[in-house]
Amino acid sequence: MPFVITLLSDFGTRDAFAGVMKGVILGIAPEARLVDLTHEIPAQDVTAGALVLRAAAGFFPAAAIHLAVVDPGVGTARCPLLVVTERGLLVGPDNGLLHPAAAVLGVREIRVLDQPKYFRHPVSQTFHGRDVFAPVAAHLAAGVPPQALGSPVSAMTELPLAAPSREGDELRGEVIYVDRFGNLVTNISAADVASFPAQGLSVSVAGVANVPVVSNYAAVPNGAALAILGSWGLLEIAVREGSATRRLGAQRGTRVDVKIRAVVTRA
Amino acid sequence: MPFVITLLSDFGTRDAFAGVMKGVILGIAPEARLVDLTHEIPAQDVTAGALVLRAAAGFFPAAAIHLAVVDPGVGTARCPLLVVTERGLLVGPDNGLLHPAAAVLGVREIRVLDQPKYFRHPVSQTFHGRDVFAPVAAHLAAGVPPQALGSPVSAMTELPLAAPSREGDELRGEVIYVDRFGNLVTNISAADVASFPAQGLSVSVAGVANVPVVSNYAAVPNGAALAILGSWGLLEIAVREGSATRRLGAQRGTRVDVKIRAVVTRA
Amino acid sequence: MPFVITLLSDFGTRDAFAGVMKGVILGIAPEARLVDLTHEIPAQDVTAGALVLRAAAGFFPAAAIHLAVVDPGVGTARCPLLVVTERGLLVGPDNGLLHPAAAVLGVREIRVLDQPKYFRHPVSQTFHGRDVFAPVAAHLAAGVPPQALGSPVSAMTELPLAAPSREGDELRGEVIYVDRFGNLVTNISAADVASFPAQGLSVSVAGVANVPVVSNYAAVPNGAALAILGSWGLLEIAVREGSATRRLGAQRGTRVDVKIRAVVTRA
């Protein structure tokens, strides 16, 4: 069965950077199955790339190779990495991009890509996606074993991700991602919420809104805000048939608190 | 020969929702051929999704599986559907999204997806594309027959689409879609136009513009408006090397009338 | 091994034009591997399409078929072309779109697509991507030889691309493309720059900025402008972790001069 290679980057889709990586891959591994996760990570936003990769990688077959390139340090000393996990391989720069996904998938070993014979030459200063990461992912798909591609190292760069904190009967978190619908994805997980009663919870956003925690969008009228455990397994704030980021003026970093609802609403 | 699965949604391409669906599909049907129709349907715009699906599905091989998810009612009682047609299978929510394509492809049978063993579990409240529709499309591609996936029903939700009306020597229609070039796609078909003389037709937009019906863009100067039978088989209003929606201030719902041309133009 | 067909167009990704082309291709060549270069070429911008195609095509396997459609003259007398090169086949309109890529790949023969039996019928006036170019690319992938698809011609339409000029110790070029990061790609090649000393070069943009030529982004502080030989093999002006087009107010056509640096900077 051909290997799946997923691609995630901040290259956008209008300049053919992603297409060029695919050309390089298909020259090395003609049978590889290529799947775009996204190329629309905001330019050089390693955190957004890391969160999207973490949210997506686990849904692919365990033999998948995940090629991720959000690489503001390209051309500097930051290392190129291969991470072997319990459920897939990760290839990309060692700048925190791979760490959240690796943690979720279960790290087996981390290798620095130090075997130039598996690179494309000459290696440019500006496009390691094409010259380092794509060739390595392709060689993996073509059967080269991880140990041939790099030397083991003991650690990788971690991404400083805010964790929610408990204060009395309140859980303090924040928005970590805003999706295309304007939904506010928080750092509050299903497990965090499970420590509260199942009913009567509300969420405040930036200290002011009073948003009910519900189990489906239809629990509130059109245009109303709601909090729900979303598809990432994290609490999200949404506006039914609308945009929470616009309505609530919230963005990445906005504080989100979960508490026993003070005011009973109609929801 | 591997099955083709097309994907259409309003998920956008920056959050990996589409990528996640592909991961789920490849886990079930590793050989499936995946083709994006588009993920840029405006958020929750069932009508736009239905029209694009109708415009595209017929160009695929008759064995194709068309997975479409524009699903503002996700998590509510709206049914998940499988429609077997003369020229392909349609999978998606029963909210009108599938109906125009089904009508064009020729409905054989309609089934409600009521066999949870073919879903991904736990089924989320917010992402049936991942948990219901993608797994079902994948099982179809992997050889599960339609009758195993759901119970037959007699009808599906239709989309209320405006039809053009004839009034004397005038045909009254409207803009139903604005494409990426700013072309105004109307609900007036080639057959409707065929009831008029082949020459000397003009079109008014919002009652004012006087646009000649021509057979190619070059029939008018750069920057001029024209009406033409477009690639959807419908009358479109365009501006040569420009945008009709901007120039004419027209959008979805804007009235478009076809009539014998009153004023002879240079075209 | 299945043939790779790349697709480049100005169709965007929200209307399914690209998806329809893929449906047509898969109906003729079910095993073809489809890779999007981009569909986000600005509408009817033949020059941008030609430059992106030139930048990307060489990275694909030599048997690849490159289908490119930026076609403001669709429906007029402009010819549909097939160009056989040393490293791949090019299919698209004869309006200059294919010429820069053909020149780089090495032209073997040029053929006018004059065999309607390989088209999709009826051939529309507005969408030769679907009715002419996609079917021809698919037939090539399915094994039809170039000579069956069209008659040889001696020349193709060239694209008027500005070339840099040398004036004393100064090289005068211009911005030919602005990429998604806001980097300014110039028409000044690595070979042009090689005629200068390796150290102490600077670049002026629109006659004013004084930008050092460096070998990696990290040579300047965050937010500073730099010039670098980019992944296209051309001199690019960038702003480290920023946008050069916004910072320098430059766009396609803006003059860029390379000279021995007059003022020593900290870089």
Explain this structure.
The structure is a homotrimer. Chain A is α+β, with helices and mostly antiparallel strands. Helices cover about 20% and strands about 30% of the residues of chain A. Chain A contains seven helices and 15 strands. In chain A, the strands form two sheets. In chain A, strands 8, 9, 10, 11, 12, 13, 14 and 15 form an eight-stranded antiparallel sheet that branches. The radius of gyration of chain A is 21 Å and the shape is elongated.
Record the SSE blueprint.
The structure is a homotrimer of 267-residue chains.
Chain A: E1 4-9, H1 17-28, E2 33-38, H2 46-57, E3 65-69, E4 80-85, E5 88-93, H3 99-105, E6 107-112, H4 128-141, H5 146-149, E7 151-153, E8 165-167, E9 170-178, E10 184-189, H6 190-194, E11 201-205, E12 211-212, E13 225-229, E14 234-239, H7 244-248, E15 255-260
Helix pairs in contact in A: 1-4, 2-3
Which key terms come to mind for this protein?
267 residues; alpha+beta; 7 helices; seven-stranded mixed β-sheet; eight-stranded antiparallel β-sheet; homotrimer; disordered C terminus
Q: Summed up, what is this model?
A:
Three copies of one chain form a homotrimer. The first copy, chain A, is built from seven helices and 15 strands.
Largest sheet of chain A, in brief, is:
8 strands, antiparallel
Strand content of chain A: 25-35%
User: Distance between termini of chain A?
Assistant: 49 Å
Spans of at least 5 consecutive residues with low confidence of chain A: 262-267
Overall residue-averaged pLDDT value of chain A: 91
Helix content of chain A: 10-25%
Shape field of chain A? elongated
Question: What is the chains' assembly state?
Answer: homotrimer
Radius of gyration of chain A: 21 Å
Topology as H/E string of chain A? Answer: EHEHEEEHEHHEEEEHEEEEHE
Total beta strands of chain A: 15
How does the helix and strand content of chain A classify structurally? Answer: alpha+beta
